[in-house]
Design brief:
51% helix; alpha/beta
Length: 725
């Protein structure tokens, strides 16, 4: 007879707050202060040893000595005191490594960021492990695989890696045993046997698989790398689900209840205030069939009933995707649950093959982070190593290579050579190439310090390629090792380039020096010219060849340059055409531009138009965006579509959303996401936030409660909805 416990709905309020004040058992281990002291003491005594060995030992220390907690009513157990010692050590090592970088290059980076052109860093926040290995082998199997590799290895460095991997998985097994013992002590009759099983063998049930996945997620983040994809959920878990249903061990409703207990943990961990964890669904299988199954349907039902902003979901779509499943997702969007990004297999498969990935690997791609495509378990995509402001390069060009706001000069321009638009456009591409090359050079120096900052035996130990090569992920142990460059502001750039062409070289309303002077003054005394540039000239997002053609020429040039550039870890850089919310951050560091924008205004977001300037409707917007070659954006590209609720009301509203997705993808778009709201509703939410606590918006690659956003961000959404900002 199954143990009877309170339902999810009864416990929900408590579960949503479980990490705010966790119920640790003080008899089970050290508190944060004690743990941090032990970590510091261990590091002081062992800092001369190989770093991967020390990192494994410190993770072992946390997992075996940190105090733990188990809620007897929860269906999952994972609470552990981690302290901040491992994170502090990571920051200390990174600071020391950065201090060794050439001072000239570091000064270049700081200047480039101060004026809002680019920044770069070591990206440890965009990873996904090999979920197949985790679920098929379990912690014992992962440990034993590393030990077997160590016995066969001949190089001591490889042996050191294998021993570190085996050590952390054995430590994780001990952690699971500790949780099982406390669960038994506290009468957690449902989760205790699940934990006992996982300490001895791979998962066999749906419950065991979910429990192991969440424990792994938590332990990797303790190690120091954010888990930004939980894998292809429906294809990873369907066999567990079907076995349980067939045997009678689980009913469909019980599975849904389990999934609610599981997913609420991701929300509870962040309270919806971070970028969320991605679960992928659908897509093509190697036999050409659709991966959508009964678990896909169940998961979206669960998501609809939960109504939380985290986790976030990816729906992979191809030409043969079942319309019924897309309709189910669209119904969620209609209801204000917009935490899904659609990704296009029919574009991404050719993209991956063009980038040298093998056909058998591409079927397991996932979205890492927001919408950055990568191969699950075989790739370290590091999708955000550089953020780059395309529009800033134009501003610098107009001012002779210098930034009017800071006085920083990043390059030199001979204005006398800019005699026509072709020369001006060539000068822009030359400056873009110079600054991208500079950013990639600086990033290669940072990438080279990875193994001195954050070797990752746990993450690496899940990767079959790392086990085969004897190398950690920090030393390019995986099959694919890429570095992403986020290129922001394409709409703002296209509009500004076209404005220069029209205002200066065609209509001759001003000369280049005169335009530069007007922009330095932030259009002071030239409001008529500003309004003409902003409201009368053709704009990106309206299916107009002028700005659209310029966007295509720039993105083709940038993709060709970036995608062939070595990244220093046996891979290349990859171009992404997206911005997330850096369009606001970059906008604050960008002066007035020829498109009519004032200094400090936000740039266009992702591949979309500048706010309120896609005046010809969503079809024209789609036509503009799909004039670009999205197979060149190996680090991802995404379009945001905002719809008024009245456009999708009634029984056919979801069909409109499906048709938009189908149309965008048939024309070559890569990824698309939606917001469905009206300006008046958002204004009411500002005035009466307590009545709109559950109103969600799609911020970038994640959802948030509207009332949690800053006033500035709220105004940006109101402007996007067609209201006055």
């Amino acid at each position: 007879m199954k143990p009877v416990k309170p339902s999810f709905d009864f416990l929900r309020a408590r579960l949503e707050r479980q990490y705010l004040d966790p119920d640790f058992d003080p008899s089970t281990g050290l508190d944060a202060a004690g743990l941090d002291a032990r970590i510091e003491a261990y590091w002081d005594a062992h800092s001369g040893e190989p770093l991967i060995r020390t990192r494994a030992a410190l993770l072992e220390l946390v997992l075996t000595a940190g105090r733990i907690g188990v809620d007897p009513d929860d269906r999952f157990a994972d609470h552990i005191e981690t302290g901040s010692g491992i994170r502090a050590l990571q920051e200390k090592l990174q600071k020391a490594a950065l201090a060794e970088l050439p001072s000239a290059e570091d000064a270049e980076r700081r200047e480039a960021w101060e004026c809002g052109c680019f920044d770069c860093w070591l990206d440890l926040s965009h990873t996904t492990p090999d979920w197949r290995s985790i679920l098929s082998l379990g912690v014992c199997g992962l440990r034993d695989r590393a030990l077997a590799a160590e016995r066969a290895a001949k190089e001591e460095k490889a042996c050191e890696f294998y021993r570190a991997a085996a050590r952390v998985f054995e430590a994780m097994r001990c952690y699971i045993v500790r949780l099982a013992e406390l669960a038994e002590k506290r009468g957690a009759a449902i989760v205790a046997p699940v934990l006992r099983a996982l300490s001895e063998r791979p998962p066999q049930s749906f419950h065991e698989a979910l429990q192991l996945a969440y424990l792994y997620h938590e332990v990797q983040e303790i190690e120091g790398e954010l888990v930004r994809s939980m894998g292809c959920f429906d294809r990873l878990y369907i066999d567990f689900y079907r076995r349980d249903i067939a045997s009678g061990a689980l009913t469909r409703e019980e599975a849904k209840e389990l999934l609610k207990f599981f997913w609420i943990k991701f929300y509870a961990k962040t309270q919806g205030l971070q970028a969320g964890k991605n679960f992928c669904f659908g897509g093509l299988l190697p036999d050409g069939s659709d991966a959508v199954n009964e678990l896909t349907v169940l998961a979206y039902e669960t998501y609809r009933e939960l109504r939380v902003v985290d986790p976030k979901l990816t729906m992979r779509v191809h030409s043969g995707s079942a319309r019924a499943m897309l309709r189910q997702v669209a119904d969620c969007l209609k209801g204000g649950l917009t935490a899904t990004v659609f990704m296009n297999d029919d574009v991404l498969f050719p993209l991956f093959l063009k980038r040298g990935k093998t056909p058998e690997d591409v079927y397991d791609y996932v979205a890492i982070g927001c919408y950055e495509p990568a191969i699950m378990g075989r790739e370290m995509c590091c999708s955000m190593t550089i953020i780059f402001n395309l529009a800033k390069v134009l501003e610098l060009l107009l001012h002779g290579g210098g930034d009017p706001a800071t006085g920083i000069r990043l390059f030199d321009v001979h204005e006398g050579e800019l005699t026509d638009f072709d020369a001006f456009f060539t000068a822009y591409l030359d400056a873009l190439k110079l600054l991208l090359k500079r950013a990639m050079h600086i990033e290669r120096l940072r990438t080279a310090m990875w193994s001195r900052v954050n070797p990752s035996p746990l993450l690496s130990g899940t990767m079959a390629d790392c086990i085969a090569s004897g190398r950690d992920v920090s030393e390019a142990g995986t099959k694919y090792n890429q570095s992403g460059i986020m290129c922001a502001g394409i709409g703002t750039l296209a509009d500004s380039l076209f404005a220069v062409k029209r205002l200066v070289f065609e209509e001759k309303r001003c000369t280049l020096p005169e335009l530069a002077a007007v922009l330095r003054s932030d259009w002071a005394g030239h409001e008529e010219l500003r309004l003409y540039a902003k409201m009368r000239l053709p704009k990106w997002g309206n299916n107009l060849e002028g700005p659209d053609g310029l966007a295509r020429r720039v993105t083709d040039f940038a993709a060709e340059l970036i995608n062939r550039e070595p990244n220093g870890k046996n891979g290349t850089f990859q171009m992404g055409l997206w911005s997330i919310d850096n369009n606001r951050l970059f906008g604050k560091k960008t002066g007035a531009l020829p498109d009519g924008s004032r200094a400090g205004e936000e740039l266009s977001k992702n591949t979309g138009a500048s706010a309120g300037l896609d005046r010809r409707g969503v079809t024209a917007l789609i036509n503009s965006v799909t004039k670009l070659d999205h197979t060149g954006f190996a680090d991802g590209s995404v379009l945001d579509i905002t719809l008024h609720p009245s456009a999708v009301s009634g029984p056919d509203g979801a069909e409109l959303i499906v048709d938009l997705v189908r149309t965008f993808f048939a024309r070559g778009g890569q990824s698309v996401q939606f917001n469905i709201f009206d300006a008046e509703t958002l204004r009411r939410a500002q005035r009466e936030p307590e009545k709109y606590a559950n109103l969600q918006v799609r911020v970038c690659g994640w959802n948030a409660r509207f009332i949690d956003l800053s006033a500035e961000a709220q105004e940006a959404f109101i402007a996007a909805a067609g209201g006055e900002a």
